[in-house]
Design brief:
The chain is of the alpha/beta class. It folds into three domains: 64 residues, no CATH class; 125 residues, Rossmann fold; 67 residues, no CATH class. The protein contains 13 helices and seven strands. The two termini are 19 Å apart. Pfam families: Hydrolase (PF00702).
Amino acid sequence: MKNLKKAAAILGIVVLLLAACMPMFFAMTDSNLFRASWGVAILVPILGYLFWMMYRLLDKRKGSAEGKMKNVIFDVGLVLVDFDWQGYLKSFGFPEEENKLIGEKVFLSQQWNERDRGLYDEETYVKAFERALPEYAQDVRKVLEGSGKTIKVRDYADTWTKYLRSKGYRLYVLSNYCDYALKQTRKDLTFLKNMDGIIFSCEVQQLKPEKDIYETLLGRYGLKAEESVFLDDRAENCEAARQLGIHAIQFHDFKQAVAELEKLGIK
């Protein structure tokens, strides 16, 4: 491809020279044609130079948005794995009211998110959830004991990450994940073998969308924000990445994410 471009450039120069010189050759006996040929001889190189400068400018602009991405950073939940807490909770067969309250006070609570930070041992978090629902304390404990069952790897996760790595991109994980569930599921997260670096919130005691966890990723692995793109299902996590200069794509589904990556030159 490089040799082809060089040959095309040489051919273009020859054509321009012929375009400039041929009129002069035929105009040697006619003063009016001679003057016109001089105009052509001057105008053609100028136009050629302007076209070349325009091409360089457009190519540079294109390169600023495409072709410079080196790092792809993945969230895990709802990007590479399913997090089906509703189906898991329903499997216990609790009465409707109890099912609703456990959903609200456990899976949809701020305490659930803080559990991902990993500041305390699992028993401390379990007792906090029990205090939130003392009438269902025993069931809450039972639900939390098997909470790793909410996680299931998506069928494209391994092949997608393996493909991107084969194309020369460096891959990373940046995910909020609790220590207890990670111990239950890490062996099933087979796509991790394709990663060049992994940051789980419980291991650094930091959470998205707080900026320090993004800075930890960039600093630990020496990544340049402008060369990195982050995929996450949550808008606030994507916005936090953008605030640090990282390109971000809010993940909705595999097809949409692939299309968005292609716009950045990642194919």
